[in-house]
């Protein structure tokens, strides 16, 4: 069995307003979506993420509240893929930390990671909204 | 064109994947949970199955494992955020033919799916041609004897499928499944109506291939004229 990674509280307390701590990855991910399906498709992906991520975070929080560690890890795993695809690198990293730590970590640390993840996800959604609104303005939409 | 099953609970990925596969000209069933996905994987004869590992209700890996245990060799691609070497090895050893980690580049995903369905012998070239009729999948463009001709999306899909199966009899039920994505006969003459329109359009533009009705069997697109029609 591999040793569990130590909890990274600096991750959990990350408060930067940039797109999840990695602007280049976020910009690149958004650009790839636009190239594939245009700005409308990028908006559609962002809207699905905006709807889905809070559901997954709420599921993780509810699972943590009832101390269901497997369910916390499952919810974090579910969110990790879409965060990574949208270039939310920091949020994806927190998902992975949560997924790894949830089965055996102490609850306050898990809650701290969860709070950090909620913040990182919200920051990324805000950034996506701004980017997509700006590009709509540039296109006169 | 291939018929693919996608078992993916993440709505964002399901939308992204569906669109990419549609652009490639594939017909897809997209299911968001384990039990129904597993059932469809066993009931239908897909050209390929794309499975997310972490599904509500069970692991995608177990679907792959069960299919292989039953001797079903449908090509399988696992899709997952689990990117460690041990995860990839486990996925492939379980019976998957390919293992794609999230995030992925859409063009890479498309290429991997093309490689996956090649295993079943489905032709996935970007353009198909027979006797001066050329269909280009990526652009939905059709030319007949070098001149561009407008086709509806369904006519395009029908023509592309018939070219893939040129000189072979294609049944109505096969067309319903592969072009209309229906696994049952809706009891209408939708296939015959579209075949008639397509035939008329091919004739109108002087196309060399003939779209024949093979009585009691189905249809055949051919350059020869020795079939009943």
Unreliable segments of 5+ consecutive residues of chain A: 1-20
Overall average residue pLDDT of chain B: 88
Q: Structural class, from helix and strand content of chain B?
A: alpha/beta
Number of H/I helices of chain B? 8
What does this structure look like?
The complex is a heterodimer of chains A (141) and B (229). With 141 residues, chain A is mainly α. Chain A contains five helices and no strands. Chain A is elongated. The model of chain A is unreliable at 1-20 (pLDDT under 50). In chain B, strand 4 (54-55) and strand 5 form a beta hairpin. In chain B, helix 6 packs across helix 8 (190-204). The chains are: A mainly alpha (141), B alpha/beta (229). Chain A binds chain B through residues 29, 32, 36-37, 41, 44-45, 48-49, 51-52, 74, 77-78, 80-82, 84-87, 92, and chain B through 9-13, 15-16, 19-20, 54, 80-82, 102-106.
Write the layout of secondary structure elements.
The complex is a heterodimer of chains A (141) and B (229).
Chain A lengths: L8 H4 L10 H43 L3 H17 L3 H13 L5 H32 L3
Helix pairs in contact in A: 2-3, 2-5, 3-4, 4-5
Chain B lengths: L2 E5 L3 H13 L3 E5 L2 H10 L4 E5 L1 E2 L2 E2 H10 L6 E5 L4 H10 L3 E4 L4 H13 L8 E4 L2 E4 L4 E4 L2 E3 L3 H12 L7 H7 L11 H15 L5 E5 L3 E5 L7
Parallel strand pairs in B: 1-2, 1-3, 3-6, 6-7
Antiparallel strand pairs in B: 4-5, 8-9, 9-10, 10-11, 12-13
Helix pairs in contact in B: 1-5, 6-8
In brief, what are we looking at here?
Chain A is built from five helices and no strands. Chain A has 141 residues and is mainly α. The radius of gyration of chain A is 16 Å and the shape is elongated.
Describe the structure using short key phrases:
heterodimer; A: 141 residues; mainly alpha; 5 helices; B: 229 residues; alpha/beta; five-stranded parallel β-sheet; four-stranded antiparallel β-sheet; 39% helix; 23% strand
